[in-house]
Predict the 3D structure of the following.
Amino acid sequence: MNFRGFRNTDPPVLMEIWNESALGRGAYHVRSPILFEYCVLSKPYFDYSGLIVAEDEGRPIGFAHAGFGPNAAETNLSVETGVICAVVVRPDRRRQKVGTQLVERAMTYLQQHGARDIIAGGIPPYHPFYFGLYGGANLPGFLLSDPAADPFFSHLGFTAWRTHHVYERRLEDYQSIVDSRFVALRRRYDVQLIPQPDIPSWWRECVLGVFEPFEFRLADRLTGLPAARVTGWEMSAGRGPGHGAIGILEIHVRPDVRRQGLARFLLNQMFRYVQEQFFRTVEVHIVEGDEAATNLFVGLGFQCVDTGRSYRWPTSSVSGE
């Protein structure tokens, strides 16, 4: 068995390995090199050496991809935190230590470039690659709908770090919410759709920019100031017609106007709009333990459909702990 870095001729075979590997409900079936280009190869920090291909007698049988997270200001990479973004092996070559050797080489690559902390499974902001190709609305680590992922990383000695739950709401039967607070909110706030809002950092532009996120905003009619916003993206972008799904990336309510129903009101307005545009599904990821977000979305009819988990190498001390 031989291991090497990425070559320009690799995308077709990497797509083939990806598609046949049954990585769970959150892995998009790649039909064109364009999506792989958008989500992986076009990133300005893509390094040929970080995408490691395993070959057996010249036949690629798997690959691992490692990269780095951003600095605190999200203005550049920080090599302090390394991320194992993907480990994919052909089904007929599993349980033969191919994945183990790929992870070992990915870790060596990260450590040689200065990584002090290593996580497996991209989550914001440690998600340099595969947004739009894996995970759904965002990158949640490795999804438990891929039954091989959790035992694999646990066996290698990684420990569970962060858990994100995937919630979904079908829109075919969505009915506007009745809430007594909404009458006053309609009088005070304008609902605005911002098709292409400013993306607040270089890092987020690299990760999200090609998918052109949009923003729904509540603006105070007296001051013009935004009171709440929801950022989302069209998950069918780059995937062709018929997908019909919206991913929610972020929801924010200004601290001085919280607990007044603004998030609920804004989401209700957003769902009505996207329903009229013939979108069928809305998805959001919620960090485990965030009871406020869980209660908000469950109250809007969302159901948990999957769980994602990221892992840490035991010597890691990733910032934010």
In short: Confidence is low (pLDDT under 50) at residues 238-242. Helices lie at 11-20, 33-41, 98-112, 149-156, 182-188, 202-208, 262-276, 291-299. Residues 98-112 form the longest helix (15 residues). DSSP finds eight helices and 13 strands in the chain.
